[in-house]
Amino acid sequence: MNRRGILIVISGFAGTGKGTIVKGLLSKYDDFALSVSMTTRNPRPGEVNGESYFFVTKEEFEKTIKEDGLIEYASYCDNYYGTPKAYVEEQLAKGRNVILEIEIQGALIIKEKFPDSMLLFIMPPSAKELKDRLTGRGTETPDVIAKRMRRAADESEGIEKYDYIVVNDTIDKCVEDTYNIIEAYHMRPVFNEDFINTVRQGLKDINN
Amino acid sequence: MNRRGILIVISGFAGTGKGTIVKGLLSKYDDFALSVSMTTRNPRPGEVNGESYFFVTKEEFEKTIKEDGLIEYASYCDNYYGTPKAYVEEQLAKGRNVILEIEIQGALIIKEKFPDSMLLFIMPPSAKELKDRLTGRGTETPDVIAKRMRRAADESEGIEKYDYIVVNDTIDKCVEDTYNIIEAYHMRPVFNEDFINTVRQGLKDINN
User: Fold this and answer.
1) N or C: which end of chain B has fewer CB within 10 A?
2) pTM value?
3) Edge-to-edge strands, sheet with A118-123
4) Which domains does chain B have, with CATH numbers?
5) What's the rounded Cα separation, in Å, for the pair B46 and B162?
C-alpha cells in the first residue's frame, strides 16, 4: 500500500548543522526529497539554478504568487524567497518525505496550511557549544558571530511552536534520531488511511 | 536533567495482543509503569488487589469520585471502573511513562484532560488475522468470537482519533515499534522544557 509522504520543516540556529543533517537524511535514506526554493536574489558563484535555488526575476516571482504557485513566501533584504507548490505536492503523492529548510515564520505558515506537516527544530547541545562551533569554523568575524548568537537568542523564543526538537550532539546520531522521529510520525492515522480502511472494511465483510 | 514521563493510552480490539505488548514494554524497558484501575466488580479467582485492580465498594468508589481522585471513570455492566489519579501523577513526576489500557471513551477523556498524553491504537495486520487469532485461542465459542468481531467493527470507527497506530504483526517488532514511537514523542518540546530553557538562558548570558 502506498504511504503518503510527510512535509517536514527543519529549522535551527545558524551553526547547529541543519544543512549537514538534511544532507545526511537525503544520502542515507531514499524516501526523502529536498524542496528547492525560488528566489529573486542573484546567484552566488557556484550556485546552480534548480539545485541551490530556482533563480527568477521579480516579475516571474510575482506571477507565481498570483497563480497561487507558492506554499509560502517572504521578502528578505529586498529579495523574495518562496517554496514552489508543484514539486512538493508531486513528491508527497509519490510517497516521499519533502524537507523544507526554512525559518519560523515560514514554518508556522506551513503548519497552518498543512496541519499534517511536521515541524522539527534542531538544537545545539548547549549555548556554549553553539558559540564554539561558530567560532571553530574560523570563517566568521567576531561581529558576525555575535550577530548570529543574538539572532539565535531571538529564534529560541519560538522553539515551543515546533512539533519536535532534536539535539545535534554528533551528526550520525542526530540523523538517526531525526529519521526515527519521522518514522514514528508515519504511524499517525492520517498517513495510514488506506490500511485503516482496508481493516475496517474487512471487519464489516466478516460480520455480514 | 529529569525528563517528564508520558501518559500513554493503549487501546485495540480484543485479540490484537494489547496485553502482551504492554507486558513486553514493562519487562523490556525500565521507565514504564502500568496504571492499576479501581473497580467495584468482584475479584475473579487469581486476581490480586492492587495488581489486577484496586477492588473497592461502591461507597468507596463514589467517595473517590467526589474527592476528584480519578482521572476518568465509567460504569459498565453495573460496575464502576476508573483510573486513580495519585499513582499516575506520582509516576509521571518520577519520569516514568504510565500506561493505561482503556477503551476509546476513556481515551478521549484522558486526551481532553491531559493534552500531552499519547493515544495509541494497536491494529491487527488484517481483519482475517484478527478472527484467526480469536479462533486460534480455542477458548471462545463461535458466538463470543462473532460478538468480539462486531465490537471490533464498531471500535474501528474511532481509530482516527488516536495519535498513532501500531500494527501487531509479530510481538517483538510491535513492542519495539511502540517503544520507538514513545521515544519520538519524548522529543516534543513540552517534555524538554528544562533543556530548552537552559539553552535559551545560555544564549542570553553569552549575549550580555
Assistant:
1) C
2) 0.89
3) A32-34, A97-101, A7-12, A118-123, A164-167
4) 7-35+96-207 (3.40.50.300)
5) 33
Nearest to A173 by CA among B187, B203, B173, B3: B187
Residues of chain B neighbouring A198 (CB-CB closer than 8 A) = 126
Residue pairs between chains A and B whose CB atoms are closer than 8 Å? 122
Residue contact A157–B130, C-beta within 8 A:
no
Cell numbers for B169, please give them.
Answer: 504483526
Q: Let me know if A75 is exposed, middle or buried by CB neighbors in 10 A (0-12, 13-18, 19+).
A: exposed
CA distances from A16 to A10, A45, B74, B200 (A): 11, 24, 49, 14
Report d(CA A96, CA A51) in Å as an integer.
18
Q: What angle do CA A43, A10, A138 make, to 5 degrees?
A: 60
Please state the ipTM of this predicted complex: 0.89
Q: Do A184 and B181 touch (CB under 8 A)?
A: yes
**Does the beta carbon of A149 lie under 8 angstroms from any beta carbon of chain B?**
yes
Report the residue of A178, A207, A208 to disrupt the B interface, i.e. the one with the largest count of B CBs within 10 Å.
Answer: A207
**pLDDT averages per 10-residue partition of chain A, 208 residues:** 85 92 94 93 90 93 96 88 92 93 90 95 96 86 91 95 96 96 96 95 91
A14 has a chain B CB within 8 A of its CB: no
Which of B134, B168, B193, B207 to mutate to test binding with chain A, by most A CBs within 10 Å of its CB? B207
Which pLDDT value is given to residue B207?
85
Cα(B86)–Cα(B69) distance, integer angstroms: 7
Grid cell locating B21 = 505488548
